[in-house]
Request: fold
Amino acid sequence: MAPPRRQSNGRSPLVNQQSQITSFFTKRNSTSLSHSPSPPPLAKQTSKLNPNPKPNRSPSKIVEKRLRVYWPLDKAWYDAVVKSFDKNRGKHLILYDDYEEEELDLGKEKIEWVEETAGRFKRLRRGASLVFKKVVIDDEDVAENLNEKSDDNYDDLSDEDWGGNAEEEVSEDADEEEMDLEDEKEEEEEEELEEEVGKKMSKRKGGGKAESYKRKASGVGKLESGKKSKITANASSKEKFKAWLAEPVKKIEIEKASSDFDKVLIADGLEKFGKREAEKLHFLGPKVRRDANRKRPGDVNYNPKTLYLPPDFLKSLSGGQRQWWEFKSKHMDKVLFFKMGKFYELFEMDAHIGAKELNLQYMKGEQPHCGFPERNFSMNVEKLARKGYRVLVVEQTETPEQLELRRKEKGAKDKVVKREICAVVTKGTLTEGEMLSANPDPSYLLAVTESCQSSTSHSDRVFGVCAVDVATSRIIIGQFEDDSECSALCCLLAELRPVELIRPANLLSLETERAMLRHTRTPLVNELVPSAEFWDAEKTVHEVKTIYKCVNDQPAARSVNDVGTDASNSTKDDELGCLPTVLCSLLSAGANGSLALSALGGTLYYLKQAFLDVTLLRFAKFESLRSSGFSGIAQKPYMLLDAAALENLEIFENILNGDSSGTLYAQLNHCVTAFGKRLLRTWLARPLYHTHLIKERQDAVAGLKGENLSYSLEFRKALSSLPDMERLLARIFASSEANGRNANKVVLYEDAAKKQLQEFISALRGCELMVQACSSLGVLEDVESTQLHHLLTTGKGLPNIHSILKHFKDAFDWVDANNSGRIIPHKGVDLEYDSACERVEEIESNLTKHLEELRELLGDSSITYVTVGKDEYLLEVPESLRGSVPRDYELRSSKKGFFRYWTPSIKKFLGELSLAKSEKETALKNILQRLIGQFCEDHNKWRQLVSTTAELDVLISLAIASDFYEGPTCRPRILGSPCLSAKGLGHPILTSDSMGKGSFVPNDITIGGSGHASFILLTGPNMGGKSTLLRQVCLATILAQVNIFFLLIVDCLIVFIDPHAWLLPRSDVPAEHFELSPVDRIFVRMGAKDHIMSGQSTFLTELSETALMLSSATPHSLVALDELGRGTSTSDGQAIAESVLEHFVHKVQCRGMFSTHYHRLAVDYQNNSKVSLFHMACQVGNGVEGAEEVTFLYRLTSGACPKSYGVNVARIAGLPDTVLRTAASKSREFETAYGKHRRKGCEDSLPDKMVGFIRELMGQSTSEGTCISSLIELQQRVRMVVQQH
Reply:
């Protein structure tokens, strides 16, 4: 008879690991366990029990057969497999499912044979409507997963206050197993249902993947990880909720559930948990819910982020439950990742989110519960953050052993290990992850505050903003005045596209709220309490000073710009408390910088909750907000592109779906580094304005072409595999001080130190590669560019870091350290480690000397040291000398012919050696942090190296952009007087590939300059290319001032004709000839769109953008107006269009293009020398029954077009012929009537009155609602004037 099964670790084998996790949320009622003598059914396979317990089988034929062995003393059955048969002893070797072996005489044991089908199956249980799914399980996978689970996954949970009734948990498992057999009759109809659902299912993605299966297999599937699967037969009610089992990942392709199926799955889970939540968590109901201060929803200062927990509910909780609810009740707006052993667990309402968003499987039990292993943390936290959730990371800061020690030493009564909040992760605070690595675009966290001023000021409001890219430690801060429409703020939002917003609660104006809604893409919004959380300037300065005083005492925290070119980052050791220069300037500005400092305060408070404030400021790159506001444009070095221009010209996002395909950025982005791509975005958003800066960049790009092209291509090739060094360095800098999840007290099971070391080595290799690549460009020939000389000169643009890199190169073996996960420093690198090594060598030398002394004492040179097990330096003495051994020698062991001793001196040396080795290991563990600290001391040089590399990458990208362009190009001539002239102007984005069979038609255009009108009035047929021409001119202007260099397609021919052709100036604008004077700002108004969420109709949106143009344009601006006035009646629209055109031509006197279908405007301006009439040419022929058919020529032609030929577009769109004939007839009638109406008084002019209206509009104050009311009044007055004429 088999002996009783032994228990492990003092715990009954019935208490499986999954039961421990589940019982975390179960109040302890009883510790007794009952056993059932009944053999249980098989729960996790569709095999059947043989009704004959002792079949007549040959001993050799039952090898590898499965069976169950009954243990009478345990009153339980255990699963096993027959591994072999010993003929001599007549016994079989049995391997139990926990890998324990035993020899049994099966004829004397009570057994049950298991006859398996072709495959072993595991069925997914369903609650009310969940469909079953069969998946094949590989026996080896099960064994491997169970073994891994039992070995280490929950080793540290033994001291938790689970407070659960294990008997109930096991009974539920047994019930599930029994139900599996009882439901055999349902299999056929379930399989039919599976086929139907399977058509809708794709491969399921699991947040835990294989790990999820291990959890289920070890907990629910096998009742006990690594111990015998003892099963009772006490069945619980069938109506109890059945956990959904995670599927295995081997031998089978598992289908991913479709969105419809997922909804059914989650809805079913919520339905099952709903009754329990309504009863036990009744205080969450909307009518009874209260915050921590017991305020109800609707009360003043109600805080939905907190929750009041009733005392009776708290009393019903176990220690573990109470700990979880203490965290959750203070952070109801966040999803808790609650660390338990090697897993992060999600409970209650968070479990529903985990199941829905991460495809995690619910665990068994009445409480909602799911989780995933530690190694999947980065992936899952990024998934939730990207979807807009706030994730609160609660880590263990104590092991069960430390808990037990604390209990003994301090008499603590705690039953659960300590846990602390270590991170808050959101869209704007992500610093690593797969999706972040794949997307080089910055993820800005933007804080905005506002102050409205009196009407005596030039602007209605002043904004303070602070934008932070946490992944690169970049902080952009500034304060600016803005108009009533928040135009400057809209421009900033359109450029940065922040993923997260921070604002003071109830302080921003309605217009500001609308602007933030209109020009962002579903950001996460955080409201902070003014003053208390969104700090004012005084509180902010105090907090920043405190942080900098602490970090500046540490060597690695020296000024961000102790060495470098960006003086804005230097710090001053003066009365301002070592603040960065940017902050000193804002502080010195008084009221003109207080809002910016307040915005920084709101940002720091928010980041402080995420444990990122000190980490960020320690190595922050402060930048002043460039070109803030629209005042003083002439003094700013950049062209301004407002929100409308960025969107209408599709600089970064296309209008179709919002991604970058088909945009100017996509056309020009040939950078090979992620940080180069980010710099290119900055250059495109802020093209140069000053002539000398434009020419400097032109020379730099030209120097990278021609004879130097091969060097440029080698540079790109060398950097093609470079990681995102800007973000990588930021992570290295942040890891220099233990904080958050990296704190020393946090209990992590993954090898975090190895990952940190690999990133450090990657950073070193990346810096070495950048130095080599930049040095290779130092041999450029015939380079006249001062910018290139500066970038490539060591000690100027290129930091002198060769000696620093050599230090780290000589410090340790990079390859060996990367593979082994630990650093063995070379001698002389680390004094602490060297000292420890010398101490170990000294003691070992003393032991060697002691051995020589003993040999001499005992008179035998064969005496030596041996190691047996853990005992080192055992003195092995021949048996013949035993009588000569002194009495104070300690006999430790012996073998035939020898005795082994420790002498008193050896014991003393061993104690010293153990201590020395411990000190050596400690020094070895700390060597990485010390090396990172040394690396961070020169952080300003590493960043300067990245900046130089990024600039070279962008310049080369611009230089080779011509490979992706069709047609001739030229280097633009920069002139002084306002003009814009182009011959053979092409399109920088449209190519023959994107246009199908056709090719783009280039055009000649001249705006301004001697003898030319400053404005073009453009008419032409619908779809004739008017809007394209407007965009084309604006994009060419941007290219000229960004300095994009295109390679002539005919260059390959020139090389064969003239070997010196590469010395010709390179080109950067798609035209045969291009001249312009710098444009300070481009205004673009085109397309019909509304902002319903902001309360703006299509026409109001159109006029709001026009009002901004009228108030902000200067003689150096470029205006592009496309079909202004089409959102209202013909008379009103035409009157407004003519008035606006009159204002630009005679008052502003800027360059511009005005396309329209109001043909009367062409008649009115045909004799105006300041306006040129042009149209997009076309050929008109007769179609069916007199309908006109138009052939578009897309050629810009002098003169006005007589018609718009809208009926032709209706024909192209496929309107019925009857409708087309009627439309053509009515069109002719309207034209005839319009001509008769205009015959008399056609010389009458409206512009004078319109200009008067415009003056009134521009002169009025623009307080809230003024703009809209003024436009409405203007419309009414225009209508009256038109009726009089």
Remarks:
- The mean pLDDT is 76.
- Residues 904-936 form the longest helix (33 residues).
- Residues 32 and 552 are 60 Å apart (CA to CA).
- The first strand starts at residue 48 and ends at 49.
